[in-house]
Design a protein that fits this description.
There is one protein chain. By secondary structure, the protein is α+β, with helices and mostly antiparallel strands. Helices cover 67% and strands 8% of the residues. It contains 12 helices and 5 strands. A 5-stranded mixed sheet has the order 2-3-1-4-5, sandwiched between helices. Helix 2 crosses helix 4.
C-alpha cells in the first residue's frame, strides 16, 4: 500500500504533463482506461442495440410484401442472410452478456461493425445504382449513428469509417452508378466520416484527460503533500478496515507511532524550510520501510508519523520500529538544539495486539500513544514496545463496555 502505489499514481500526473496526442497510454494505463470506458458506455450501447432490435421488429411486422417479379440482387440477399444477420446477432450477444462485453467488445465490435459496413455498402450501392438514392441518406445516417452510439474509440472509428467509405465508393463504381452521383456521394460520405472522426477524437481526448485528472486528484486527496505518505484520514480509514478484517481472520495488528524529537527547537534554529526537508527525508525512510501489501506508512500531522502492520509478529513489529529509529539516526541530520543527540532522532512507540470484541481500533491507537509517551519519558531516541496492559486502557472513550 506504499511506494509502488505512489509510483502508480504518479503515472497519471506524468501522462497529463506529457500529453497523449496519439490517444494512447502506456499498456497498463491503457487497459485501466478501457475498463473504465467500457463501464461508462455500456448503458448507451445496450440501449442502442435494444432500440435497433425494436425498430427491426417493427419494420418486419409493418412493411408491405414485395410485388411479384420485383428484382432482388441475389448476392445482396445472400449477404444479408448469411452475413449481416449473423454478425448482428453476435454483436448483440457480446453487448448483452456482461462477461463477453468486458472481454471482447473493444476488439470484436470494430471487426463486426466493419464487416456489417462492407455488406451494407454493397447492398446500398446496388440500390443507388438502380435509382433508389434515398438508400444513401439512410446509410450515412446509420453509420453516423453507429460511430456515436456503439462506443467505438477514435482509432476504431478511423478504421471502420475508412473501410466503409472505400468499400461504398468501390461498390458504387462497380455497379455502374452515374459519375455525377458517385462524385456527389463521395463528397458527402467523406465529409460526414471526416466530421465523425474529428468529433470522436475530441470526445475521446476529453474522456482520457478526465480519467487522468480524476485519478490524479484522488491520489492528491489521499496523500500528505509534503512527504508523499498517506494522510491522517486515509490512515484512520485503513486502521478501521484492517481492524475489522483482523477480527474476521483472527490476525494481529501492529501499530508504530513515530515522533521527531524536539522538532519545534529544530524549526526555531534552522527554519521552516529546513524543517520541511527534514520531514520529507523521514517520510522517505518510512516509505522505504513498508514492503508488505497491507502495511501502511502515514503522516498524522506535524512531526508525527505512523506505521500499520497487518498479520505480523511481535518480533517483526519490534524490529521494524528499531530499524526506523536507526535509519533516522543514520541519516545524520544535524540538530544542535536537541537534548537527545547531536542529530535528528525519533521516539518510537510500538504495540502488537489481536483485535477482538469489546475493543475498537481507536483503543489500539491509544495503546500506541501510551507506548510513544513511554519512549519520550524514558529519554527519547528510543523504542518502547507494548503488548501487555492493553486490557487495562481506560483513558478517554476507548474502553468499550
Amino acid at each position: 500500500m506504499s511506494s509502488e502505489k505512489n509510483e502508480h499514481f504518479k503515472v497519471y500526473e506524468q501522462t497529463l504533463e506529457g500529453g497523449f496526442r496519439s490517444l494512447r497510454f502506456s499498456p497498463a494505463l491503457e487497459i485501466e482506461f478501457r475498463q473504465d470506458y467500457l463501464a461508462l458506455i455500456r448503458g448507451r450501447v445496450v440501449s442502442c442495440l435494444i432500440a435497433v432490435i425494436v425498430l427491426m421488429a417493427w419494420v418486419m411486422v409493418t412493411r408491405e410484401p414485395k410485388p411479384a417479379g420485383s428484382a432482388i440482387d441475389p448476392i445482396a440477399a445472400q449477404l444479408l442472410t448469411w452475413g449481416m444477420r449473423p454478425l448482428s446477432l453476435i454483436l448483440m450477444v457480446i453487448a448483452l452478456v456482461p462477461l463477453l462485453y468486458r472481454r471482447l467488445w473493444v476488439t470484436a465490435a470494430p471487426l463486426l461493425l466493419g464487416g456489417m459496413a462492407i455488406i451494407g455498402s454493397y447492398s446500398a450501392a446496388q440500390k443507388v445504382a438502380s435509382g433508389n438514392t434515398d438508400v444513401f441518406i439512410a446509410m450515412v445516417c446509420g453509420y453516423l449513428g453507429m460511430y456515436m452510439l456503439a462506443g467505438l474509440m477514435f482509432w476504431q472509428v478511423l478504421a471502420v469509417g475508412t473501410i466503409t467509405t472505400v468499400a461504398y465508393l468501390f461498390f458504387l463504381q462497380a455497379a455502374g452508378a452515374p459519375a455525377e452521383a458517385i462524385g456527389f456521394e463521395a463528397f458527402i460520405i467523406c465529409a460526414m466520416t471526416g466530421l465523425a472522426i474529428i468529433f470522436i477524437y475530441n470526445l475521446e481526448h476529453t474522456l482520457r484527460r478526465s480519467f487522468l485528472q480524476q485519478h490524479a486528484l484522488e491520489h492528491l486527496s489521499n496523500v500528505d503533500a509534503l512527504t508523499g505518505l498517506k494522510n491522517r484520514r486515509v490512515f484512520e480509514e485503513s486502521l478501521e478496515m484492517l481492524w475489522k478484517q483482523g477480527m474476521r481472520d483472527k490476525q494481529p495488528i501492529g501499530m508504530i507511532l513515530i515522533d521527531v524529537d524536539h522538532f519545534k527547537n529544530y524549526n526555531d534554529l534552522y527554519g521552516h524550510a529546513a524543517g520541511d526537508r527534514c520531514l520529507k527525508t523521514i517520510g522517505g525512510l518510512l516509505r522505504g520501510a513498508v514492503k508488505r501489501p497491507l502495511d501502511m506508512a502515514a503522516r498524522l500531522g506535524g512531526e508525527e508519523f505512523a506505521l500499520l502492520c497487518y498479520g505480523s509478529t511481535r518480533k517483526h513489529v519490534s524490529a521494524l520500529a528499531e530499524s526506523v529509529r536507526r535509519a533516522v539516526v543514520d541519516a545524520n541530520i544535524p540538530h544542535a538544539a536537541s537534548s537527545a543527540a547531536e542529530q535528528v532522532t525519533v521516539s518510537v512507540g510500538a504495540v502488537f495486539v489481536q483485535p477482538g470484541i469489546g475493543r475498537s481500533s481507536q483503543s489500539l491507537y491509544q495503546f500506541a500513544d501510551e507506548a510513544l509517551y513511554a519512549a519520550k519519558s524514558n529519554g527519547r531516541n528510543r523504542v518502547e514496545v507494548l503488548d501487555d496492559g492493553y486490557s487495562n486502557i481506560v483513558t478517554g472513550a476507548f474502553k468499550v463496555n
